[in-house]
Write a structure and sequence with these properties.
single chain; alpha+beta; Immunoglobulin-like; 12 helices; binds alpha-D-glucopyranose
Length: 715
Amino acid sequence: MEKSFKSIGVAEQLVRTATGIFLRTQTEELEISVLEDDLVRVTMRKSHPHAMTLPDSEIPSCAVVKRDLPGVNVKITESPLDINIITGKIRVHISRSPVRIGFYQLNGIPVCLDTAASGMGWMKDGPACFKTIPAGTRFYGFGERTGYLDKRGTTMTLWNTDTILHTPSTDSLYVSIPFFIGFCGNYAYGIFLDNPGKCVFDMGKTSSAEYMFQGTGEILDYYFFAGPEIKDVVEQYAKLTGTMELPPLWALGYHQSRYSYSPQDDVEDVARSFREHDIPCDAIYLDIHYMDGCRVFTFDQEAFPDPSGLIARLKSMGFKVVTIIDPGVKIDPKYKIYKDGLKKNCFVKLPDGNLFEAEVWPGQVVFPDFFKEKTRTWWAENHKILFDAGVQGIWNDMNEPSCFSTESGTMDLEALHGELGAEVSHAKIHNAYANYMNEATREAFRTLLPGTRPFMVTRAGYSGIQRLACVWTGDNASWWEHLLMSVPMCLNMGLSGLPFTGADVGGFLYDTDPELLTRWTQLGTFIPFFRNHSAVDTCRQEPYMLDEPYKSICRDFIKLRYRLIPYIYTMMHKAATSGTPIMRPLVFEFPEDPKTHGIFDQFMLGPDIMVAPVYQPETQCRTVYLPDGEWFDLYTGNVITGNRYILAESPLDRIPVFLKEGAVIPMGREMSFVGELQQVLKTIDICPSRNARSGRFSLYVDDGETEQYRAGSSP
Ligand code: GLC
């Protein structure tokens, strides 16, 4: 990284504000506001000589929900050299010459410090900040990234991109979350750079002693989360940016997708086959071929002559239908959606007043400007055709937005978004495009299906997307490497505020094979979003297509998934109330054990279930690390003492799973789909041990489909 960097100047003027301080250098203004005892916002911009408080960011944040935090009482001390802001949990130290910020624990331990040489300032492409890396620090988070769990020593560009065939070294992917957790062994903190334009993070690659984050535009706007545990940081971030809403319970079942099931008889055939082969399944996805020439909000009259009838028949078998929606609207003067959008001025324009056009699946398209309220309302209304036909879930794809015909792969950076007179260039808000598209979908559910819980899946997103949709990791391949990679990807997403995630089980691109599909189905059983999806021209990969013993093994695991739903749903409720990830890296549960800090090929489902997926062919056993304590083998009940690596048996019909001592795991009934049978707890796995003197589990239950849960009622 080239360091063409101009550091912030010397503090010349200081004003105390209700929540902290405002100071001015010759060329910058800086505001430090304490929003909570453990949450501080830092904002720097170029000087506006007469303003004594910073105007809010030019672009309202779509990530932050807690804009109205009342602030907390802080103590501020000043000396000619420095200023200290003391909250109930931390001390923020600001030196005046040059201006540098340091966050300290109240006992004086430094947590996160600007580098002496650089601190905050300006790179060629935008505002930036340099901070020190104490020895032993690890960096987790950053949303959807390939590679392993710890991102130390890497650089990352956060810019939503439709990246086909990603590898461990791929940089930008579909979702950008400029948030990370710095974990230093005995404490953790977090930083969220709220900037929906391009963000760059250099986490000790250029210099192992410092990291740098840089945004786009004229304002550096970041939040510091004081931890001190990883769990605390994740919850603090969730408090600021919001938590997921509870989806309908069926969202936790097994889902089957393919690009594409068409014509409609094929869809029915898939549904019937699941029931005939006694493999549970809750949802079937319709990919782009259900539409008339990929025109959104239409059905292909020939392939899908009777969508309502089809969906009703599927419903009677317990299936829900989820349809794909892409943002691009085909340019076709005879097409109603295109004509309406034009008339209502809903499409994105270039600075010269022309519409921005590009090629996507339908051919040449224009793009809705979801940053306008009226576009979102119009888009929402268009869902009527789908909801009237009985569709119950919406899958928002290609919403980076992806453009096949532009060199950048996305929209023109100069394209304009937002209301007339307050337009913002695409470059500044690219990563938020999907959030606003999902807002529109959310409005569709709220207005057209009031009282029901929305089920939405999205490919792209920016911080805050967790409030709207579940994220899947895009176009992976039927490779063992991608099975493995999906684990740290989902773990880091969970640490980045996105608890409801999953990868295409079986792999999307290329042909899967029976063993890979079986192993992936075993893993999917323990992943929050459990969907099998595959690309056009690849071999069919529905589990019932498999020969024995693969088919029976997949069936057994999918059935196990249904038995685990009460447990997983309870974790989901926790995620919805406090942001705690459902699927957690070992370091999240066992931070005091250094051996866990880098483990990415095992994970915890909630606090009690340790899962060690098999990610190589012909594996009969694999190494598993068991932290201190006693562990119960899920299959045999054998008790194994931890604080060591073990070689766990993993024949084809077994993925190593261990229950933590003290665990109380409620197991529900097997069923073909959620709601087929009244849920009752069939068994409760209790794992007593010498050490765990008590164990408890508070099961969360509600009706699983309405919004009544918000009022706190349970059936
Ligand atoms: C994109 C999606 C994929 C989908 C395909 C066709 O590649 O990521 O899941 O099947 O488009 O719609």
